[in-house]
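FAQ: What does a ligand-bound record look like?

Like this one, built around iron/sulfur cluster:
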Amino acid sequence: MAGVYIAYPFCSQKCTFCNFASGVFSPDSRRRYEEALLNELRARSWTSPPDTLYFGGGTPSLMPRDFLRAVMEAMPSAHLGEATLECAPGTVTPEAAEFWVASGLDRISLGVQSFSIPELRLTGRRHTPEIVAREISVLRSAGILNLNIDLIAGLPGQTVDSWRASLDWIERLSPPHVSVYIFEVDEDSRLGREVVNGGRRYGAATLPGEDLTAELYEIAVDCLASAGLARYEISNFARPGFESRHNLKYWQLEPYFGFGLDAHSFDGLRRWSNPDTLDAYFALPPIEQAAADRAEERFFVGLRLMRGIEPSAAEWSRFAEPIGKWLDAGMLERDGSLLRLSRHGVLLSNEIFQDFIHA
Ligand code: SF4
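The answer part, i.e. the structure of the complex:
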């Protein structure tokens, strides 16, 4: 069965590290967008009903209730095995949580990013650890136990001590799922641009170096494992049974359909994506991408999963050169018919995956 992704790109501020197609737009743009997205959703013909739903952003916890209701009504009637809403801390109230549950949502992903106030202020975020703790308790009281917290390793000003303090909050709050992303320097975020141009704004001059960031990530892997959260994908950690069913579809090459700004889709054979600016989304059709090469994708998408992949005989032979190179370097491990990233290999994954493209 397929997953459905709904993009809600509206935020109350643009965070300095953010390179997503999201931001602060006028109320008119928002209304026009909601109408366009509903039209897109209603126009889809379904061969089978989806079984997972994911509202990402942007900040979908800011969605007006009428819009959320209309999206749920436009979905083919099916029993959703998982329905996630991304929330920015500071947007969760008891009324909102009850409404989300009544609408069929059963998983909340909180974009906390850090529990350190100086780090948060440099990103433009206004929440505090206490707000996060209170909102988690509100969500649990409303019956939502399937909770994720997002953290970013490598934020400006981050140190081993401040990172350990953030991980202590994770232990205290005990969410069953945590995502740890490594901050990537690129010109699509204000902070990334500042770093590339040698500036100092947004704490750019205090960005941890690559070695420290790798150390922070490794500390998280160990701390989360001791808290019972096993790493099942490069950036994702969960208690058994709480792995994200929707996100697993991406890594297992199962079909998913995205609606809204910059939303990506894959029907098992073809990939396409929506334009990434509002004007283009209103005016242009989706952009068809090159036909998927399933063998290549099994490597550079499937290897993100810690359990690894089971290449076919043809794949062992086609990719013999990159497999041999990275096995020799200790970055890949072979376990019978399984191939997976080693602990060191996880940190070099982008470089490793490149070798499987057009191999
Ligand atoms: S990080 Fe989240 S809340 Fe901040 S601008 Fe990006 S999408 Fe919006």
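Follow-up question: can I read anything off the structure? Yes, for example: The domain at 293-359 is CATH 1.10.10 (Arc Repressor Mutant, subunit A).
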